[in-house]
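Input:
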Amino acid sequence: MRSFQQRLDDFEERNIRVVAISVDPVDVNLRHWKKMGFTFPLLADTDAAVIKRYDLLHEHGGPGGANISRPAEFLIDPTGTVRWANLTENAAVRARPDEVLAVFDALDQKRAGEKD
Amino acid sequence: MSILHGYGGMKRNWNWRLWTGFLFALAGFISFWFFAQFPITRDFPWANLLLFAIGGFLLFTGIVRALREPQIYRGKIFGPILATLSVLIFALFAYGMFYVVRQMPPSKGAPRVGAKAPDFTLPAQNGIPVTLSQLESTRGTRSVLVIFYRGHW
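Output:
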């Protein structure tokens, strides 16, 4: 998350909107958002309704057996179609900004090639 | 002769390797929270493992010299104690890093490439609701990156 903030200019330059979702409530997100200096929104899915719809629920994965989201990243195009998805099998290993930017650029080139 | 070879009256050297080794093992564990901030040290915890390795080497050589030259070096008893503690710390770290982090339920129903991403509306940190489909259709948007994360706690 911190690494995505550091590279946010590269995402904005490409007109990629970044949002992050967890089960944390709005007040925790606000505190975290201010502390970390984030400029992209942190969304509160307190009852994990969206997390469940994306089948990302990690039951009792949090402290005290709380239900949390497993880490995952999705690139979604303007029509709402998933163009790239990353579902890690190791909670400590997540997508890096460079990886996502490279994927976007590759998809972008492919798209441009198809139009020609 | 009794003064040279006996333990009493002879001041033995402090076996710094044992304590330093133990500190390295402790640092290998605690520094997880530091190294987890950077992808390069988080994806594979090589920095932590390096600290554990240095600690293990110091403890091992510290114990060896305490056993071989007990008249010179201290640590015949607390050396193995510190080593055991270090091994336990390392075991806990390895358990967390290589086992617990992989204990995630399968996610077979997650939207795959080419599928429609389920729409959602959720409040941002400022309380203002954000809707995926609105973000998608905002003028200029070429893509939306949705990051799901475990939470800050």
